[in-house]
Specification:
This protein is of the alpha+beta class. Helices cover 48% and strands 15% of the residues. The strands form three sheets. A four-stranded mixed beta sheet has the order 1-4-5-8. It has a four-stranded antiparallel beta sheet with strand order 2-3-7-6, with no helix packed on it. Strand 6 and strand 7 form a beta hairpin. Helix 4 runs parallel beside helix 8, helix 5 packs antiparallel against helix 8 and helix 8 packs parallel to helix 10. The longest helix is centred in the middle third of the chain and has 37 residues. It binds flavin-adenine dinucleotide. The site of flavin-adenine dinucleotide has 23 residues, from strand 1, strand 3 and helix 12.
């Protein structure tokens, strides 16, 4: 069923639906089984110009806002696909666009827009720091015209399928920084040149097909010209990109929610048990209706956050709230859809069990629910910080 929210950017949605129709459930099932990266799907999206939607026209992109990007990702997920293979390009590019030098933008953005370079990897999380990003330990020491990087990252998705990576490092130890969030810097790493020369990438197999990895830096040299913005200011740049990331991921949850609702409603109308469609029972109808209401409410929050972002207004709290509600709505819808399908929900060929696994991620990454609640409690409500 269509709602006013899912009618924004109708032409974009229609084109994404057409593209996704070429990548049916059987395509995703086969990749999921072997944990293979959806290369052809990403290529088709790139060629269709969807991954460069946020890149300004002067660099070869479409120059559209975050609202258009949310429509793309929502439709991918509603179709049964997954944007996790490539969504990062949309928000990591923003770090170069907003904080990169004119020379960096001219060098990289046109190639990213043309699909000649993939900027899919975003290296923040470390095994010992967890969500407390100020405690990252990967360190870049300056030696002449190079930074020498040493340390380790975990859960860095798509590193094996990306040419470039936005990497957050410490350039001043936490103890010597004025504030814990000072002294971190952002480097643009050329992964093609780095692998085997100070960078080792090790895949991590997870419950979903997400191409995530562990990275080991052992004196990797990165040219100083690849520093984004000012040394020591990197945490601020990363936070900027995180709002976009949370809004975009929330739109993927909305797409998942709608996928589960579409599938559950269709199945409930058609599946006959005790001589009648199961959907005639309110015990089946009401959870579907509740999922629809929760998803519509979360979608309104995503639209609100993305409108604030596009207007250049502060949107940290709104992006967090949208992501929390959308990830909970999609998880409720996933559980409802599995239950509606009974035993068939567990069969691979129905796509429900795969999407169920996939949508669970969003309550943990890119930011976990507790950390969002803490942000809202302290930033929006003025309650004392617990950490
Ligand atoms: C498949 C996958 C892909 C990912 N891709 C990327 C990527 O590309 N790049 C990247 O940088 N990272 C990536 N991540 C990392 C992701 O962002 C983190 O897993 C997430 O932010 C949570 O951090 P953590 O796993 O270190 O959990 P922790 O910080 O160790 O937290 C564990 C649990 O404790 C809770 N918790 C922690 N502190 C508190 C507190 N003070 N109060 C209450 N509860 C608390 C958390 O909410 C969480 O539930 C990915 C993760 C996964 C699983």
């Amino acid at each position: 069923m269509q709602t006013p929210q899912d009618q924004s950017f109708p032409e974009i949605r229609e084109s994404v639906r057409k593209l996704c129709a070429q990548f049916p459930g059987s395509y995703w099932q086969a990749l999921d089984r072997e944990r293979i990266y959806p290369k052809d799907f990403v290529k088709a999206l790139t060629q269709g110009g969807f991954l460069s939607i946020l890149i300004p026209e002067m660099y070869g992109g479409s120059g559209l806002g975050l609202g258009a990007a949310t429509a793309v990702l929502e439709e991918i997920h509603r179709s049964g696909g997954n944007g996790g293979a490539c969504h990062a390009q949309m928000y990591t590019m923003g770090t170069v666009l907003k904080h990169g030098s004119a020379a960096q933008k001219a060098k990289f953005l046109p190639k990213i827009a043309a699909g000649e370079l993939a900027l899919q990897a975003f290296g923040v999380t470390e095994p010992d720091s967890g969500t407390d990003t100020t405690r990252i330990r990967t360190f870049a020491r300056k030696e002449g015209d190079r930074y020498i990087v040493k340390g380790q990252k975990i859960w860095i998705s798509r590193a094996e399928h990306s040419d470039l990576m936005i990497l957050l490092v410490r350039t001043t130890p936490r103890e010597q920084a004025v504030k814990p969030s000072d002294g971190m810097s952002v480097l643009l790493v050329d992964l093609r040149a780095a692998v085997g020369k100070g960078l080792t990438i090790r895949p991590v197999r997870t419950m979903l097909n997400h191409a995530t990895t562990e990275l080991f830096f052992d004196d990797l040299a990165v040219p100083v010209e690849n520093l984004i913005g000012v040394e020591g200011e990197g945490f601020r740049y990363i936070l900027d990109g995180m709002n976009a990331e949370r809004i975009l991921i929330a739109s993927e949850c909305i797409g998942d929610g709608r996928f589960f609702i579409d599938r559950a409603a269709a199945y409930a109308k058609e599946r006959q048990v005790f001589g009648a469609p199961i959907g005639r029972n309110q015990g089946i109808q009401f959870p579907i209706a509740r999922a629809h209401i929760q998803t519509a409410a979360a979608a309104a929050m995503v639209d609100n956050a993305s409108a604030l972002f596009d207007a250049g207004k502060p949107c940290g709290t709104e992006a967090n709230m949208a992501k929390l509600l959308a990830s909970e709505a999609s998880w409720y819808a996933a559980d409802m859809c599995l239950q509606t399908h009974g035993g068939f929900g567990f069969a691979e060929e129905y796509d429900i069990e795969r999407k169920f696994r996939e949508t669970r991620l969003y309550q943990v990454a890119p930011i976990s629910t507790n950390l969002i609640l803490s942000h809202v409690a302290t930033h929006a409500l003025g309650l004392p910080k617990s950490f």
